[in-house]
Amino acid sequence: MKRWQIIFLLFLVAGTAYILTGNVPYQKEEGNIFGTTYRITYKSKKSYKEEIKNTLQQVDNSLSPFNKSSIISKINNNEDATPDSMFLYVINMAQQVSQATDGAFDITVAPLVNAWGFGFKKGIEPDSATIEEMLSYTGYNKISLADGKIKKEHPQTMLNCSAIAKGYGCDAVARMLRSKGIDNYMVEIGGEVALKGVNSKDNRWTIGVNKPIEDAKQTNELQTILRLTDCSMATSGNYRNYRYIDGKKYSHTIDPHSGYPVEHSLLSATVIAKECAYADALATAFMVMGVEKAMQFCEQHPEIEAYFIYADETGKMLTRETSGFKKYKR
Hints:
Elements: H1 3-22, E1 26-33, E2 36-43, H2 49-63, H3 71-76, H4 85-100, H5 110-115, H6 128-135, E3 143-146, E4 149-152, H7 162-179, E5 185-189, E6 192-196, E7 205-210, E8 222-228, E9 231-237, E10 242-245, E11 248-251, E12 266-273, H8 276-289, H9 291-300, E13 305-311, E14 317-321
Antiparallel strand pairs: 1-2, 2-5, 3-4, 5-6, 6-9, 7-8, 9-12, 10-11, 12-13, 13-14
Helix pairs in contact: 2-7, 4-8, 7-8, 8-9
């Protein structure tokens, strides 16, 4: 074969490969899990719908307190249960975040969350004596891992990973997609997202941050729009999940130190980090800490970026962000 023929053949093969690669479609999967919805978009000739469902079900079987046969439910009921790798990973990360945030993030706050009517068991407004009693068996330092088992200092201690499980679910699905050789995806579960590569327009993924308004009819109004890739994002807010008790409004974020719903000006915290579980946990911790303490934490942890929406004394909505956050804005 002559040299020009070899060169032509190589160009032909390369061109064919490019065309075939460029025509790979973006699959879209949607459904319900963890009491919320999921939307997953990924570039692949093959659908991984069943693999996605199986992965999410594994997380549910491990970490959902609404699943009566899950590992976390058995532990909460003081039944013999051997944690799987998912459970152990999440518990270890939760404990690390709890230590780093001085207990602002705490997965043992479940009895208090339930008592205030925001958890997987409904309650009524607790009195001060009840709160004091609950504080005696809540606290991340009242649980530990020993020989692959969860040890509780008090049988009434309960775990709730709702503030980290959605993020971990995103990480788990993202990990599964990468194992299939997929380099372009957007995994979203209940507003938390894990992202890699580019979207169908060959651009970074476009993600909106909702404006923290209570009117459910205006849920699509955005505060800001971000362009993200190769990272994860989680947002926590007090502006929609709340209750009125005897005419007083209570947010769903419970301060693990006091046992009462938080009362400060922070309306929404958005965190960008490598792992979605980490971003998810920090967003919740920041809602407990408030703007100033959260900003101080971010200054000491340059691996994360954050965006805060809060109200001033007059009720006017203001924002603060870490120095590196602006690079994500559209």
